[in-house]
User: What shape does this take?
Amino acid sequence: MLEQKNKINRMPRMGKYVIIGVTVALVIAGLRAWQLFGYIFNPNVKNDYVLYVVKGTTFDSVLDSLEKNDVLHDLKAFRWVARKKDYHHVVRPGRFHFKQGMNNNEMVNILRAGLQEPVNLIFNNIRTPEQLASVVSTYLQADSASILELFTPGTAGKYGFAPETFISMFIPNTYEFYWTTSAEEFADRMKVEHERFWNEERRRKAEALGFTPQDVSTLASIVQEETVKADEKARVAGVYINRLKRGMLLQADPTVKYAVGDVTLQRILFSHLEVDSPYNTYKNAGLPPGPITFPEISSIDAVLNFEEHDYYYFCARDDFSGYHAFARTNAEHNINAEKYRKALNERKIFQ
Assistant: This one.
């Protein structure tokens, strides 16, 4: 009887222990679940950050970059989520933008899918392929050497250009690219953009002048080097078109600078005019073999929409305003030129 009573008394105590044990287990499980939920969904990015991942980068290298740059509040949490989502086996190259407050789930989804944020590649005021390569390589993973290699003699023909006119395919503007774009992919895109730019209307205007798009770009490059004033470009273009129609030499100073190899010249001397080069339009009739710089859209459109007038000459104004004095006759032009030469002498500009 006593033994049975003791058994009855022990049963409630055992039940208490079971309840306590289950409760503790549930609490621990709940805390762990809450911790894992936090690993996945709690904000983890401290500040906006752009992560660059090159091809062949390992998962550990990604972690090192995030740690060294103090990107995350909790690197351990990111590592756990990344492994659970198998990112450590599928590290993709790219430029990835993590925004402040982004959680690990969002970050890993971006990385696993390779969802890059495009960059706005801007190039203008470019004279040489070397300058273009230098600028483009600051936006893309492709280095300047690979961009410059595009301008080797064998490449132009692939895109339907002569080596001398190839730079006209690269029209200065703002373009969206992914950081991982290769040099060849960049050139392919520029070809597409060139064809898009040269729409039916622009081609019709070029044909009316007896020009190809490459001819227009060549003349536009000269116009661009002649004047920095946008409101003067169409007038300058009109002068050159008038001279071409009459069979006159262009006698464009920028082509002489290009032929001499010194675009910084402020004064063209008679010795410069004698340089033996197909780009010297003081000695060779018609347009030079190709553009002397990368013509801007405004310069191209200035040629296509040139100002109709009866000017055949122009010279920089003696007030150094950047504008030009235009003339109908050589006699008028000589007067303007003498004023400019006098102003150069007064400023002691002799070359």
Remarks:
- The longest strand covers residues 49-53.
- The first helix runs from residue 2 to 41.
